[in-house]
Amino acid sequence: xxxxIFADIHANLEALEAALEYAAKHRLxxxxxxxxxxxxxxxxxxCLSWSLQHARxxxxxxxxxxxxxxxxxxxxxxxxRDAIDWTAKRLRPDLVTxxxxxxxxxxxxxxTLAHGTPHSPELFHYLFxxxxxxx
Length: 135
Known about the structure:
This protein is α/β, with parallel strands linked by helices. The protein is built from six helices and five strands; from the N terminus they run βαβαβααααββ.
């Protein structure tokens, strides 16, 4: 089994299409999505729809979580908040429902998926250097 791992697509449909071409060329047949299919880019519906339909394993990212939870949105920069506000107004209702079904972490055999860290994945910790590992 050969996996293509997608993270931080951020509604960039052109980049997603280029990555899918690469995956097809290299016979990567299983897709794993580590979240943030939305945010910043112009195509949130297309990118999130693809992720929800094609990922064998899929976890929620902080940008998806921010659509659902104000306490996540509060941690964003002003630019990121603007992007999520714009995105939330345009997301199809069925895709918002799809976000609600995404887990913060998935474990499948030897694979563990989380958008942030496996330690408290719902907090979306950022690791900026090695000293952050213990937090």
